[in-house]
Amino acid sequence: MSSMGRGKEVRIARACVFACLLSSSAGLTTAHADWTPSGPYGGAAELVRVAPGAADFVLAASANGLLYQSRNGGASWSLLRFPPRFAGTLHALEIDPRAPGTWYAGVESETPNIAGVYKTDDAGAHWRSLEGLKGHSVWSLAIAPGDANRLAAGTSDGVFLSADAGATWRRISPDGDPELRPVVALAFDPADSNVLYAGTTHLPWRTRDGGAHWESIHEGMIDDSDVFSIAVQTNASANVFASACSGVYRSGDGGASWKRMETPRGAFRTYLVALDPYRAGVVFAGTSAGLLRSADRGATWKAVTAQPVKSIAFDPVHHEKIFFASPTAGLLLSRDGGLTVAEFNTGFVNRNFTSVAAAGQNLYAATVYEPGSGGIFRTSNRGLRWGRMEGPKAGENILKLAVAPDDQNRLYAAGYDGLFRSADGGATWTKPVPLPGGGLITAMAPLSGGRLLAAAPSGLFAFQHEASQQQPWRHITLPGGRRSIDQLQSSPGGALAALTSTGALHSDNGGAIWAACGQPVAATVWYGLAFDGAGGVALAATSRGLFRSTDRCATWRPALTGLEAATVTAVVFHPDHRGQAFIAQSGRIFRTDDAGLTWAPLLRNEPADVYPTSLFFLFGAPQRLFALFPRRGVFSIPIDATADVSPGATSHLTGGYLFDAGVKFHRNR
Prior knowledge:
mainly beta
């Protein structure tokens, strides 16, 4: 993993928030364990597809390239490998109707070696970028009915066609035509694969001779309508439907002319139109006002859900089942032909996580920029069930969370408007208390008695719960004067660490007095600093690798036995077992039992793409290590089913320990 400059501003969708919480104990590793997801599930879904020849198999994807599969009809989901995830935008996904394990994915990217069409022949185990379209940003894909070797790809610069299942491609739209691009929707005529419809940001187009000639077909449409999807009726191909920014349109003459369908007020912008292949006359429209259903070919509509829908898939075996992908509600399932829907997101997560915090039985997680579906989530049973809580303020995005170590219901939430506080686990909130100067809180460390340390670009501040609201903050003097604090981390025994862009500080008396740590090497970025209880051993996670100190962080030596000299993004000591610690490096989790002298992978066959932003233990669950993964939520893994936890270690421990890395946030999305 490459190091990141601490002062660099990054977008929240790509930001890594390094946070570690400790409030329990754990033992040794098991050889055949695996990470288990626990939520909070949901988030933005973009695409859903079913395989005609595979019962109960469903694919779902997010726009940022997270690809999930379900082998039980949507009851649960598991993440699949997809090489360009987070590197481009996944716009299209299709399954070969002859071979359920053959899939095509269309990716848009400003990076030429990322954009193109990806294909797998073994259900996602291996992917390859198809040569003929490498470097072309792909917005849409279509497979010709009756000829699965015939594929069309809509790109930012026109339409391409393959007659050999993607092995070769040829352009079939006019080269350089400024109107027939980008092609965001494609649909073959089911009766004649030479007839192909294309939706663009400049109205719809049609070819009737395999691309030799194209014609703009927009009579009856509002001028300059963006056409997002096109659907052709299977048994009567003259009937064509289109969704556009100006509404839903229907044509009875193969697109030569269109009529705009009357939809409920507010439902004018239509992202998707789909025809139910098993119920004559049933049409679905995903609009700006939610999902609509018509039983009379679009003459009248009824609202199904207020959630927006971007993709629909009809179950080929259980015809009453319909799957929907929503950018706010994740994956929805109907069991009654689309009359009603319910969320089916177990295992599916695609959220903008910013922070996680825990104390006692409560675990909290925060997400941002998810109107109507995100915010603050809480679980009191180790992630088995999460509940979404009302935020402290409508529309407020919470960047940091913290929980008091002596009161699991005393919750702190930092947003753009300042610090919010709750004494009842988030049921009610106080008004925000801004930091001096109005800066953002970059990290928090809760202390007992309602005290709180808050870090900001302007320095470190103490908040006293009972203090006067006219002067709620007290500036803390640090060695070297005021400086920007990016991260705060607490360790077993009460040690505190504050990380800056140039070094680290530590305190052993609740943050009243701070001392500077030595620098492991010059020009390094700090990601974590953990202390082994009351002992003098400290471990530093940095962009230059892991370092070990035996004199309370004054001097350092590299810890290389079992590790690389590469970025370590998180480090935590076990709160009860002296000498045991865990780190994250190069996409793997490592553990030590001798205070950092030697290290071994937590899993023998762990894939090299496990990049947690948090590692933590939960009260009452001493045999599992928990982690927060970017976009994917909270996971856990068994460490040792036979761990011998000393009496009182977890049965009486209620404190919460926090490590929260600083990330610069943009106010505007």
